[in-house]
């Protein structure tokens, strides 16, 4: 055999060894599962995620009551970092886990690996696998980059020049620049509220991590079920921030066989039980300062400086200190902390404005008029707000077009308060553009000048 053929044979043989090691080793099927986990559209780099998370975490640490017990903090950090090693998406994040001294059963994640777990969640977990499931779920939000994905969607319409100018890659003050555009990651930010699709994705990542870390992957869904039944009043905030994507337990159970061979996973540890005892011996959490989106939080007053927001088919001015959360067909313009928990645990907007493209129920866009379309919209709002009532209505004009101004009264998500809403509707092509201004009755006088200025600025394009 010639030396050339011998060399080729050696290469082929070496390649077969590599092929055998990569494709035939037991873990390959599990490794291929990683390809299913792909973060969505994002204008930020992972490095920017870390920068945003670090800046936001420094701000959160000033606003939240944290548990500083060294043993408990060490345990939570060790557990979290051990779980993060099994994330299905490669990441080089400086994982940090902190405990909020709050009785509310909740947890939240900031971009770049900064995760906060409420004391109430640790106390409610019946074993280590369950609290590991909560933490693995939050790790899922981080590695799938849900926070900066939402911010990217908002930036497309609010600051294209910032994107072109490369400001997202600058080394410092990124959170401040985004805050000027109404995009924030503070503890009361609307960007901490996850969509049902993001929750479903975080569930999938969470059970993947639990399985590969050696825990019972059913534990995460078990925790959600247990706290909903045993602690209905304490879990309102959790299910507001983590909306149930529907059939959660069934979906988790269906995914588990795809993770690999069935095996008995770990459920508890002596160290977890020891930390539960440490928590039980600690003084109760301080009253009043509980954590993200607490109903006692009062937003800062609207800034007198207005900036332009370019939406889908419209333009409106907003206070520069208001945040933006956009989704398909709608956008929320609101101060930090505007999204809070209502009396039934639903997440509701207590302050600010929202703009929605509403399609009345008729295949023929000419078959409905402005009044008919508005009445359909009000009726649809009444499904989730049974005490909503119309207190006044008159004709007006928006951007030179006929419009309808409807005054509404409703129960505020602030306990014991009523809210006054001003709904303005105008036809925009084949849909109804609806702008609603929201404030509790006690704050309406302070917000009214801002609402009036926003309405005067509204233009249809």
Strand content: 15-25%
The percent range for helix content is 40-55%
Strand order of the largest sheet: 6-7-10-14-13-12-11
Structural class: alpha+beta
- Please tally the helical runs, counting DSSP H or I stretches of 4 or more residues: 16
Q: Biggest sheet, in brief?
A: 7 strands, antiparallel
> CA-to-CA gap between the ends?
77 Å
* Low-confidence segments: 1-35, 161-166, 288-296, 341-346
The 3D shape can be described as elongated
How many beta-strand runs? 15
Number of domains: 3
Overall description:
- This protein is 41% helix and 20% strand.
- By secondary structure, it is of the alpha+beta class.
- The chain has three domains: 1-29; 37-281, no CATH class; 306-460, Mog1/PsbP, alpha/beta/alpha sandwich (Protein Transport Mog1p, Chain A).
- The chain has a seven-stranded antiparallel sheet, sandwiched between helices. A three-stranded mixed sheet has the order 1-3-2.
- The chain is elongated.
- Residues 1-35, 161-166, 288-296 and 341-346 have low confidence and may be disordered.
């Amino acid at each position: 055999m010639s030396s050339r053929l011998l060399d080729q044979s050696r290469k082929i043989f070496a390649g077969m060894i590599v092929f055998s090691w990569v494709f035939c080793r037991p873990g390959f099927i599990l490794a291929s599962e990683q390809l299913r986990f792909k973060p969505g559209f994002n204008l930020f780099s992972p490095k920017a995620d870390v920068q945003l998370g670090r800046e936001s975490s420094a701000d959160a640490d000033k606003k939240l009551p944290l548990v500083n017990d060294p043993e408990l903090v060490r345990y939570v950090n060790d557990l979290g970092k051990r779980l993060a090693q099994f994330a299905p998406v490669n990441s080089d994040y400086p994982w940090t886990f902190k405990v909020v001294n709050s009785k509310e059963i909740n947890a939240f994640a900031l971009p770049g690996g900064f995760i906060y777990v409420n004391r109430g969640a640790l106390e409610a977990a019946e074993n280590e696998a369950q609290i590991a499931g909560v933490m693995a779920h939050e790790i899922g939000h981080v590695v799938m980059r849900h926070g900066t994905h939402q911010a990217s969607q908002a930036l497309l319409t609010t600051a294209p020049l910032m994107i072109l100018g490369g400001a997202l890659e600058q080394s410092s003050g990124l959170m401040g620049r985004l805050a000027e555009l109404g995009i924030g990651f503070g503890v009361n930010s609307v960007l901490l509220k996850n969509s049902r699709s993001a929750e479903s994705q975080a569930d999938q990542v969470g059970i993947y991590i639990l399985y590969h870390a050696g825990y019972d992957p059913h534990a995460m869904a078990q925790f959600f079920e247990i706290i909903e039944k045993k602690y209905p009043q304490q879990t309102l905030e959790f299910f507001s921030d983590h909306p149930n994507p529907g059939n959660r337990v069934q979906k988790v159970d269906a995914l588990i066989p795809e993770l690999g061979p069935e095996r008995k996973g770990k459920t508890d540890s002596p160290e977890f039980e020891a930390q539960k005892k440490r928590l039980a011996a600690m003084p109760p959490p301080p009253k009043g300062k509980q954590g993200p989106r607490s109903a006692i939080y009062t937003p800062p007053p609207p800034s007198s400086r207005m900036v332009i927001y370019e939406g889908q088919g419209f333009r409106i001015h907003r206070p520069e200190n208001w945040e933006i959360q956009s989704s398909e067909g709608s956008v929320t313009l609101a101060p930090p902390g505007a999204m809070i928990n209502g009396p039934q645990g639903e997440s509701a907007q207590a302050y600010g404005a929202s703009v929605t493209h509403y399609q009345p129920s008729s295949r023929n866009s000419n078959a409905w008029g402005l009044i008919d379309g508005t009445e359909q919209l009000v009726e649809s709002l009444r499904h989730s707000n049974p005490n909503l009532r119309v207190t006044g209505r008159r004709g007006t004009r928006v951007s030179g077009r006929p419009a309808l101004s409807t005054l509404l009264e409703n129960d505020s998500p602030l306990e014991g308060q009523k809210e006054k809403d001003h709904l303005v509707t105008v036809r925009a092509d084949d849909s109804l553009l609806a702008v609603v201004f929201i404030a509790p009755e006690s704050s309406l006088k302070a917000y009214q000048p801002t609402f009036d200025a926003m309405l005067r600025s509204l233009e249809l394009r």
